[in-house]
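Write out this protein's structure.
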Amino acid sequence: MAKKFKYSARSQGGRNVSGTIEAATEAEVIAELRKKGLVPMEIKPAGGGLSFNISLGGKKGGGGAAKAGAKKGEVVLFTRQLSTMLSSGIPLLEALEVLGEQAESPQFRACLQQVTEDIRGGADLSMGLSRHPKVFSDIYVSMIKAGEMSGQLDIILQRLAEYQEAAQKLKGEIKSAMTYPVVSLVLVFGIAGFLMVGIVPQFRPVFDSLDIDLPGITQAILNVSDFCKESWHIILGGIFAFFAGITLFKKTPKGRYLFDKMMLRMPIFGPLFRKVSISRFARTFSTLVKSGVPILGAMEIVSETTGNMVLSQAIDQAKESVKEGDTLAEPLARSQVFPPMVTKMIGIGERSGSLENLLEKISEFYDEQVSQEVKGLTSLIEPIMIGIMGVIVGGIVLAIFLPIFKLQEKLGHSG
């Protein structure tokens, strides 16, 4: 039975269009608007009620299985397999039963069994998945709902798997870029600490027995060594308190915003973090819009999943501007968070009606940029770390041997 829906959309020329349309489901409304060359912004029943919001509020959960987690690789494999089985004509319930039985981890198996029971009880797949937010993210549930409404669940699952694989690849590149400097710094300070606490104090009695004035660097190293040896518990407590304070500060909205802003302005790593956030924004936005999610619903999800509060705030402000009839590109450009190339391409996508395609191109461009920058950072960081190690360790060794050289010089003059 046909129902009336109110819609707001944007034409290829960037003009806002609104009206009512009769259709059986929201998916039919989206399909009809796309046939007319319009980009759906918001859809809601004409008689009032909830608007077509893809986010299902998975955080509420429901049932013990909602707390269970799963490996990212398991979810990607499940998504690929479910897409293949559905496209082969296997019923959803039967596919879920098979995949639940072959799940590797007990937690994921219990999760899929609970989802299967929910669907057997009459729930939609998206509703069943939304009860397990630790396993299936908001964007995952949102795209599944869009796939259900459009009748293209197998295609949406394939896009989801591609999205997850691309996101994992990007995350892996960032980890590889950060692992080397972190491990190197830990080793450098570990070696320095061992020298200061275990080796340098052994030389103090020797230096005290020498009838010479110690060089300034040697005296400074000895003083630092004495402090480290006597007050190691204060140092460790201070380090713990510092990182605990940073962690607690980051949990506040203001702290998270300031920390993310600082991350974007960091030397060397700042540009990399910005490119990663923009790539994640473009890929998520493109995947949602391509899957039939209205722009306002997509922007809400993108804001929550971008991983950086500075970008999230800019996206939220842009969403409010879009609600008032503004284009998407203009508020993003005013935020000065997104590079001009990104906002220009988004503007062209809005005018041409191919926003999702241009967003995908932006994502691919920045993915390539991140890969190149990670390689460049690895080659740059290595000599920097070697230099830091040389300065710290070499300085300690030099401070120990300087008095010996000075004593030899004094004995040579005496002879």
